[in-house]
Amino acid sequence: MRLLLVVPSYYPESYGGAERQANLLAEAMGRRGEHVTVLAPTLTRDTPERTAVPFGAIWRVRVKALPARGGRYLASTLAWTWKVRRLIVRHRSEFDLVYVFHGRLHVAGPLLGARAAGLPIFIKLGAGGPTSDYKALYRKRYLYGHLVAAMKTRWTTGFIAVSREVEDDLRGVGVQPRRIHRAPNGVQLVAAGRVEAALAARNGRRFICIGRLVHEKNVDVLLQALAALADAELTLVGDGPHESALKALADRLGVRERVRFLGALEDPEVELLAHDAFLTASVHEGLSNSLLEALAAGVIPIAAAASGVHDLIEEDHTGFIVDRPEPGAFAGAMAKVLRMSTTDRAAMSRAAQAPAARSAQEGEPRLAARRLDSVQHRQGGRRRAVVGQHDLADLPRRPLRPHAGHGRLDELALVVAGEDRRDAHGAPPRVAALNRSSSRPAPAAMAKPAAAVAWAARRLAGRAGGA
């Protein structure tokens, strides 16, 4: 399997959930001997355009602003769109499949490129509910956001939904159920012995939050909640443009001595193990990676009711859900942890590991890749391989061109990893069902705006995207 993995941002310029999930997937595939190319934007000339890595390669596209932003950075988004389309078409023979993390403005380039190259494309959406990827596109001032949303709905081979809310959002915009595939984010489990040793050393007062220090994460809410609790301590792992403002707020609230600002950490596991409870006030999530990592480390979660939270947390058993990201609500939940006995805290910490274990089993790219031994086969010139959390069954060995008259992508199926149920004729359960709408020739009303996007992106690529 030769996989092109497209991300809206990447190391070293960004270190968030999408980047960690992309690395999990790429490294898992690499360990299986598959070749993965990560395609990402870069804002600096210091980052090399091509880098060889153990799982394959990292390719960079230079732009002046991250392509998912749009707005006053629309020229840079269009530059990315044209460059990515051109790159995919030029290198079409080097890839079997395009896999995109998140579904905002940056997907236009991969969609146009995959369609022109005849490659299947899968999109893993990044958020659900009020902050879903679709609603983010619809909120754009200009037609471009609506056009990208329409292209995404029509041309995407399959969507990866990390939570029930994301799945419901996709159904709500008209995506057929056969093209929606539920699979949680992957997570690396922590050795049981390490968790038990950490439980013995915890004091019941340490809280931790991991994430970018940006407005959407509502870290100011956590500082205000901390101010209402005399005995609590808070560790903030992450950096971002709001760091100075948050430090100033901690000073004004009189809690600066009880707050540690650690900056971004490549691996936060050691810090997680040293804390009793994990806090997240963000509602801009699909399925929080930091929350999964906290659960894996046996850290009691206190989370705002974002997408995916109810899939992971059972109130008063594996953690606490806060209906609204407000200081009083978080202070109340934090006070519950402070009042718990050592025995009760340890019991909840152990219970919190169960949903992380389920997520690892159902969605962890490393474990899914391991199952390649039991599902890989060749049949009738087709191939089966595992991509991250999923099996991509019967992908053609050479790219098809559905828009050039080949009809639908024959016998393309995506099945949850480990499930290899086939009917009496040897066909996978969803064969020939995924790409009917995306393989159908686009109507004229759709084709002309798409051509306009490609034309505008081409015109702006040279002047907005740098070298």
Strand element count: 18
What is the mean predicted local confidence, pLDDT? 78
Based on secondary structure, the structural category is alpha/beta
Strand content: 15-25%
- Number of H- or I-type helical stretches: 18
Protein described:
The structure is a single chain. The chain is α/β, with parallel strands linked by helices. Helix 8 (219-227) packs parallel to helix 9 (243-253). It has helices at residues 17-31, 74-90, 108-117, 133-138, 143-155, 164-172, 192-201, 219-227, 243-253, 269-273, 289-296, 309-312, 327-339, 342-363, 365-370, 372-375, 436-439, 444-464; strands spanning 2-6, 35-42, 50-53, 56-62, 97-101, 121-124, 158-161, 180-182, 206-210, 233-237, 259-263, 277-280, 300-304, 320-322, 378-379, 382-387, 390-396, 413-416. The radius of gyration is 23 Å and the shape is globular. It starts with a strand and ends with a helix. The longest helix has 22 residues, at 342-363. It has an eight-stranded mixed sheet with strand order 3-4-2-1-5-6-7-8, sandwiched between helices.
